[in-house]
């Protein structure tokens, strides 16, 4: 089974081809970070324009890497949402054009299902499992009893983890995207600044990071008003410790309550060194299998979309040529 995946939900134009749901044959990502950097974040209009310019080039490169033609592809999987509508539409329209021209099935994929399925490119999934999703726009705990079935048991009530990283980085005058910079700084500093942790109600698996973000901003501003400076590495270390403390504690509780066999980590923030080592330490007793994808599969790519698409294709999920981009798509929509 050969699946071609297309991803354009945000600021990466990506095409990949995978074999039998797990083997990467081609994986091409054109990042737009350089174009958005000077604005301190993703500018939707610029993102769409780049996708239009890049999609054909990236597609051709992927086919070249795989050394196959469209005749051998079984299905075309594309991110239908969530994401920026104008960005999503470029991928959706490219996928529809190819599906029509080559008479191939079209499989719609949820972007976060893709992030979760990046883990299947690392190892075979064992159910039931729990996925900790920590990305630029999402912070969720997702329970899966079987392939292609997603139950959100907790999610952020305000900022996503990655969003908080990026905003804190901006406060510290670090370039976009700020996550990797905070991560690096955090390892040079000490968590000596007292910052809040939002545990929310007893038993809740929801998250909240806006209070923490505001506390960091206030700490910086108050120090500036007093004419003092705070060591940015200590602030980064304190912020990172607070984020990781909440993520790991809630995840551990959910792993125990739901009795899962595997814990998958997904999304761009899964690239965080502090989070990776805290999770490795917490789950080192071997009771469950901890899976964290390599860095290149944590951030946006199309191999993960093809991996989720492979499973959705087997499940019989199809879209026709009326497929549209859905910016606020719900991950539970294809559960049966
Ligand atoms: P979503 O997947 O929710 O639609 P997205 O696709 O924009 O959002 P991803 O590409 O999964 O998000 O991840 C990007 C985020 O990951 C950014 O917020 C970035 O700062 C963060 N990130 C990347 N590397 C690190 C790191 N080492 N530490 C912390 N955060 C990181
Ligand atoms: Mg991105
Ligand atoms: Fe993403």
TrEMBL record:
Record keywords, A-Z: Acyltransferase, Cytoplasm, Iron, Metal-binding, Transferase, tRNA processing
Family: Belongs to the KAE1 / TsaD family.
Catalytic function, reaction form: L-threonylcarbamoyladenylate + adenosine(37) in tRNA = N(6)-L-threonylcarbamoyladenosine(37) in tRNA + AMP + H(+)
Tagged with keyword Transferase: yes
Tree of life domain: Bacteria
A cellular component term, taken from the record's GO annotations: cytoplasm
Gene name linked to the record: tsaD
Cofactor requirements of the protein: Fe(2+)
Gene3D superfamilies named in the record: 3.30.420.40
Annotated ranges, domain Gcp-like: 23-306
GO terms, biological process: tRNA threonylcarbamoyladenosine modification
Signal peptide: none
CC cofactor note: Binds 1 Fe(2+) ion per subunit.
A single GO molecular function term of this UniProt record: tRNA N(6)-L-threonylcarbamoyladenine synthase activity
EC number(s) on file: 2.3.1.234
Protein name (record): tRNA N6-adenosine threonylcarbamoyltransferase
Residues at which substrate binds: 133-137, 166, 179, 183, 272
Functional summary from the UniProt entry: Required for the formation of a threonylcarbamoyl group on adenosine at position 37 (t(6)A37) in tRNAs that read codons beginning with adenine. Is involved in the transfer of the threonylcarbamoyl moiety of threonylcarbamoyl-AMP (TC-AMP) to the N6 group of A37, together with TsaE and TsaB. TsaD likely plays a direct catalytic role in this reaction.
Keyword ATP-binding: no
Coiled-coil residues: none
Pfam families xrefs: TsaD
Entry's localization field: Cytoplasm
Taxonomic classification: Bacteria, Bacillati, Bacillota, Bacilli, Bacillales
Organism the protein comes from: Neobacillus thermocopriae
Residues that, per the record, bind Fe cation: 111, 115, 300
Annotated HAMAP family: TsaD
């Amino acid at each position: 089974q050969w699946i071609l995946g297309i991803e354009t939900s945000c600021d990466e134009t990506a095409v990949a081809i995978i074999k039998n749901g797990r083997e990467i044959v081609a994986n091409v990502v054109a990042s737009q970070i350089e174009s958005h950097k000077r604005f301190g974040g993703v500018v939707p209009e610029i993102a769409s324009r780049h996708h239009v310019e890049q999609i054909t080039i990236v597609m051709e490169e992927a086919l070249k890497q795989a050394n196959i033609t469209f005749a051998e592809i079984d299905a075309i999987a594309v991110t239908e949402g969530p994401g920026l509508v104008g960005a999503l539409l470029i991928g959706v329209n490219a996928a529809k054009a190819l599906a029509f021209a080559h008479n191939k099935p079209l499989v719609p994929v949820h972007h976060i299902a893709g992030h979760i399925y990046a883990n299947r490119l690392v190892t075979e999934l064992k159910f039931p499992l729990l996925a900790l999703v920590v990305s630029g726009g999402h912070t969720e705990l997702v329970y899966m009893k079987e392939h292609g079935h997603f139950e959100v048991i907790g999610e952020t009530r305000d900022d996503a983890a990655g969003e908080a990283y990026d905003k804190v980085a901006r406060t510290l005058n670090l370039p976009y995207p700020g996550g990797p910079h905070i991560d690096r700084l955090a390892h040079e500093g000490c968590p000596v600044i007292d910052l809040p942790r939002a545990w929310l109600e007893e038993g809740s698996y929801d998250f909240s990071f806006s209070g923490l973000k505001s506390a960091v901003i206030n700490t910086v501003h108050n120090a500036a008003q007093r004419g003092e400076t705070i060591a940015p590495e200590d602030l980064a270390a304190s912020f990172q410790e607070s984020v990781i403390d909440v993520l790991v504690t809630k995840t551990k509780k959910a792993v125990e309550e739901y009795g899962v066999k595997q814990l998958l980590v997904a999304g761009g923030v899964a690239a965080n060194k502090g989070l990776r080592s805290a999770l490795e330490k917490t789950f080192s007793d071997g009771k469950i299998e901890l899976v964290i994808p390599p860095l290149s599969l944590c951030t946006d790519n199309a191999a993960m979309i093809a991996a989720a698409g492979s499973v959705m294709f087997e499940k019989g999920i199809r879209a026709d040529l009326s497929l549209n981009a859905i910016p606020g798509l719900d991950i539970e929509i294809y559960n049966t």
